[in-house]
Backbone:
């Protein structure tokens, strides 16, 4: 997210708008607990949240009497942040849904809302496609088909457009789930979805042309830039995703091996640049409001079937990722990604994420053992192992196929390694 949103916009409004001020105090309290508390923020007891909840309730009361729609939109973003910190997926999505409706009414009348709030909602519209039980009820953000400008003036502008493309791509993929995993696997894809696929493919090519030209004339330092790397990975993943949106055969991803390897090399280069002369990583936050590198590298882990490449991506998830990125938690995503590798290659990974013995399928695993998709329970659970030790993790489901081609769900408890 543009730092200006937090350092200027939010701080400015907090000086004279009580709803903003109360929300900031609630966010600050929850964030402080993540750094100083003995337990992960998602496991905080209700008593630990008393200060935050008191101010959050005060903000809600102030919002009810507010008739300034752009300001309501700003507070809506802060409410989404609070609910994410509290681990309340569905409530966060409802606030986001409400904000999208308001945004369509105000962004053309208030330039500051379009400049600083619209980009945030472009990225937040991804949340229901990954965490909601019913993404179909989520409103489609208008303006995602904006004509791409003839020339990017900044990295922020390039990100603004690629975020819109990614949002369209994810919606296309979710609409294609029924053709990949559902009862329409053997049915033709509707013309309107095929048309949208062609449109996204064309706009991706157009974006890439503009971005290549921008990079050619922009000044760059010798070290890789995190924002630039993130944008590049988003484009690459969207490019693969749009081509595979309706593919039932998981073997199709093997032809993108060179692109997967290149993405991992870019992330590895960034990780090296972030390491100090003494070999220590720079301090990173425990929470960021928007998704960072976790979902990007997770995609490589689950779709690239080269064992060496995907284990490197798995390691980079913890090296580049933040403990909590929006609703993406590195411990959960790392644990599920780890099981993808173990199941598909027939191998056990050690504590460092490397094979502890010989893999049954050291090369590309056959299609019948490949996982199609996965799901996780929203709340973590704790189990006691044979030695009486607490094991934290989640119930996860892996969509697999039978030799006859039928899709079934394999469920298991996936332990999360700190």
Residues:
């Amino acid at each position: 997210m543009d730092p200006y949103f937090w350092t200027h916009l939010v701080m400015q409004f907090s000086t004279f708008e009580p709803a903003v001020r109360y929300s900031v105090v609630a966010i600050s309290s929850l964030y402080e607990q993540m750094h100083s508390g003995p337990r992960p923020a998602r496991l905080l007891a209700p008593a630990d949240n008393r200060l935050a909840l008191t101010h959050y309730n005060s903000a809600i009361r102030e919002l009810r009497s507010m008739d300034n729609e752009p300001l309501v939109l700003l507070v809506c973003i802060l409410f989404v942040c609070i609910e994410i910190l509290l681990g309340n997926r569905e409530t966060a999505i409802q606030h986001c849904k409400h904000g999208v409706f308001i945004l369509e009414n105000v962004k053309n009348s208030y330039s500051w809302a379009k400049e600083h709030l619209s980009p945030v909602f472009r990225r937040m519209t991804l949340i229901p496609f990954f965490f909601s039980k019913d993404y179909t009820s989520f409103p489609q953000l208008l303006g995602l088909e904006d004509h791409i400008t003839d020339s990017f003036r900044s990295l922020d502008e390039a990100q603004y457009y690629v975020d819109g493309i990614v949002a369209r791509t994810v919606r296309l993929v979710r609409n294609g789930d029924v053709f990949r995993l559902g009862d329409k696997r053997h049915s033709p894809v509707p013309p309107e979805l095929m048309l949208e696929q062609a449109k996204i493919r064309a706009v991706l090519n157009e974006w890439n042309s503009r971005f290549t030209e921008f990079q050619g004339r922009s000044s760059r330092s010798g070290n890789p830039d995190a924002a630039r790397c993130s944008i590049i990975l988003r484009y690459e993943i969207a490019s693969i995703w749009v081509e595979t949106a309706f593919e039932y055969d998981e073997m199709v991803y093997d032809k993108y091996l060179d692109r997967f390897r290149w993405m991992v090399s870019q992330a590895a280069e960034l990780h090296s640049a972030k390491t100090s002369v003494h070999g220590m990583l720079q301090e990173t936050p425990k929470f960021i409001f928007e998704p960072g590198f976790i979902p990007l590298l997770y995609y490589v882990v689950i779709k690239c079937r080269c064992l060496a490449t995907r284990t490197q991506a798995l390691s980079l998830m913890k090296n580049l990722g933040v403990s909590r990125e929006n609703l993406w938690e590195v411990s959960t995503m790392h644990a599920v990604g780890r099981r993808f590798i173990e199941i598909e290659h027939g191998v056990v990974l050690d504590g460092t994420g490397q094979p502890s013995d010989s893999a049954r399928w050291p090369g590309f695993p056959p299609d019948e053992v490949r996982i199609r998709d996965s799901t996780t329970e929203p709340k973590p659970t704790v189990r006691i192992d044979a030695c009486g030790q607490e094991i934290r993790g989640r119930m996860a489901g892996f969509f697999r196929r039978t030799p006859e081609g039928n899709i079934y769900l394999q469920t298991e408890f996936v332990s999360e390694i700190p």
In short: The two ends are 27 Å apart (CA to CA). The chain has a mean pLDDT of 88.
